[in-house]
Write a structure and sequence with these properties.
This protein has 88 residues and is α+β, with helices and mostly antiparallel strands. 36% of the residues lie in helices and 14% in strands. It contains 3 helices and 2 strands, in the order αααββ. Strands 1-2 form a two-stranded antiparallel ribbon. The radius of gyration is 15 Å and the shape is flat.
């Protein structure tokens, strides 16, 4: 598999399903205690371009409000996505 075939957007389908499920919960009256932001990056292989630009643009907001970052990504040899979690 070449760059981009299984990475960086390999986790998009399960993330979209998770977002859809949260939308269903919202329709039933559930509200999260914090804002949830879903992001999908492009330009990872040539140097993390999308995520770096977004984080730099939103750095102050992230430093003040972010409590967790979940990166669902799959490396070429893995069958299931791995989840990297960073806490502020």
């Amino acid at each position: 598999m070449g760059h981009g075939a299984g990475d960086p957007i390999s986790g998009a389908s399960p993330e979209l399903e998770e977002a859809r499920s949260l939308g269903e919960l919202l329709k039933q009256g559930w509200k999260p205690e914090r804002t949830i932001v879903y992001c999908f990056w492009d330009g990872e292989e040539p140097g993390l371009l999308g995520s770096t630009e977004w984080a730099e643009t939103h750095a102050a907001e992230l430093q003040q409000h972010a409590i967790a970052y979940f990166n669902t990504d799959r490396e070429r040899a893995r069958l299931l996505p791995r989840r990297r979690i960073a806490f502020a």
